[in-house]
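Hey Z.,

So I finally got round to the uridine-5'-diphosphate thing we talked about over coffee. Here's the setup:
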Amino acid sequence: MILVCGGAGYIGSHTVFELIDQGEKVVIVDNLQTGHKDAIHEKAKFYEGDIRNRDFLDKVFSENEIEVVVHFAANSIVGESMENPIKYYDNNVYGTQVLLETMKKHNVKKIVFSSTAATYGEPERIPILETDKTEPTNAYGETKLAMEKMFKWADFAYKIKYISLRYFNVAGAHKSGEIGENHSPETHLIPLVLQVPLGKRKYISIFGDDYDTHDGTCVRDYIHVTDVADAHILAVKKLRNGSDSSIYNLGNGEGFTVKEIIEAAKKVTGLDIKSSIEKRRKGDPAKLVASSQKAMTELGWNPKYTSIESIIDSAWKWHKNKPDGFEN
Ligand code: UDP
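And the result:
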């Protein structure tokens, strides 16, 4: 049985869909704070509850034969983490502490962890390698780095093996159009851009056009959520094969500016998308592009959605299917 903490969230739900497609048995824990009931796969066993609740988590581990944990349960909004860092330390760091304690108690020795490019902070070079310095510029990234460090020492002391996946900009939706990105409030570029052709917003704000990039807007490395989900499955398999702990970047290795994303979205939707230049958003590095060579070589990861149009197209399908997102 694979335990997916946060399996009702955006990336968690897509990972559950791929795991079940591959014949895995899945149990989900989610407090539904940001996850959605409607995103839960019907074949997964579901426990509604919080990973910080020791007794609750203990019951989940007692009632199920857990072999591996895939851990997504965390808060992930950069701006909010700067306003309320303690919330992030409590849910992300303390939550992971209780999870590790419970794993230790029940002798579960494998975990795949949802990490982030925000662990790097301002990059020293592009593309970013896993060995580059980690100096987060926001509290969210700092809590994810703290969680990675907790895994490192849990491995040292208790031999709990971890694979940490540092994602860059995850976007797109499941090919069925039945599940997709649904944050409230939404802060991510691609869903916000698509709100314009959906008639939900008049224009998209471009946060700064005076960066040191080829058109002045920020460059990001966009990666499809199903490709990210597949990397988790490869990580589970690698741990099953007795792999040591490791950290991998997940990106396409190609950067797109905000303006290029808007142009690609115009092409995909066939509709006009108005934009307005606004001031820079705090804490945004000019460029974030991953080297995912290590994941490709060691995990055998091979992203399928390599064009930005195919990523946006899958997001468009989802938003057209559910313009108001999940009901639950
Ligand atoms: N962005 C923007 N307008 C928006 C939302 C985001 O110009 O309404 C920019 C943001 O400044 C960043 C890029 O789009 O340069 C990607 O932002 P997002 O929040 O999607 O992801 P992040 O890179 O912060 O993880």
